Amino acid sequence: MRLLILVVALALLPLCSASAQPSEDAPPAFLVQAAKDLGVALPPRLRISKPAEDVPQEVAQFSGGWGGRWEGILGHVLVVEELRPDYTASIVYAWGTAPQWRITKAGWTRVRGAILKGELLLALSNGARVTYQMRGENTLEAAYVVSGQVTHGTFQRLKE
Fold first, then answer.
1. How many CB atoms lie within 10 A of CB 130?
2. pLDDT in tens, 3-45
3. Distance (Å, rounded) from C-alpha 159 to C-alpha 138?
4. Which of 38, 39, 40, 85 is most buried when burial is the number of CB atoms within 10 A of its CB?
5. H/E element holding 14?
6. If you average pLDDT over every residue of the chain, what do you get?
7. How far apart are CA 20 and CA 18, in angstroms?
8. How many Å apart are CA 53 and CA 21, to the nearest integer?
9. Domain 29-158 has CATH 3.30.1330.30
10. Using the 8-state DSSP alphabet, how is residue 66 labeled?
11. Is the distance from CB of 58 to CB of 115 less than 8 angstroms?
């Protein structure tokens, strides 16, 4: 009987190893690490698509992952998953916690963005408007505006 169990276990071992491999849509390790460092939640499925050749450079420059803190306090990861030639984008907007701001739960949301006059613009479900501007090749400066309050942040390109 023990031999039968051992044979079955050995036969199933390759299946267990294969299921331990990350999914093709799992967030890349460098994003997972940045999110962990910033205390930010990420979705279990996330994919950054390389911009197509017909996507203008002024749009393509926003591609990828960006991380930092709003006002040096609230961790934030922006993931530009897909950019389209019509100047629109598929975005993951993710945040951490900031008890002093009464943000006690990390989370994320998927939103559509638009690039207009060199700025990436987002409208979040809480009524916030977020604007990102390129400052050099690897830095975004941003403003988060909700209910007349403005919060600023600087975010760095996240790389492998």
1. 23
2. 333 233 333 333 333 333 444 688 899 999 999 999 999 999 9
3. 10
4. 40
5. helix 2-19
6. 87
7. 5
8. 31
9. no
10. E
11. yes
Reported as a single tens digit per residue, the pLDDT across 42-76 is 999 999 999 999 999 999 999 999 999 999 999 99
Name residue, tokens 């967030």.
Answer: 27
What residue spans define the domains of the chain?
29-158
Summarize the confidence of residues 66-91 as an average pLDDT: 97
What single letter denotes the amino acid at residue 85? Answer: P
Which runs of consecutive H residues, i.e. helices, occur in 20-142? 29-38, 57-60
In the block, which residue shows the tokens 């940045």? 34
CA distance 44 to 11: 29
8 A C-beta contact, residue 111 and residue 127: no
Question: Which residues in the chain belong to E strands, given as ranges?
Answer: 64-70, 74-83, 88-95, 107-116, 119-123, 129-134, 139-146, 149-158
Structure tokens of 70?
């709003």
Q: What's the whole-model pTM score?
A: 0.84
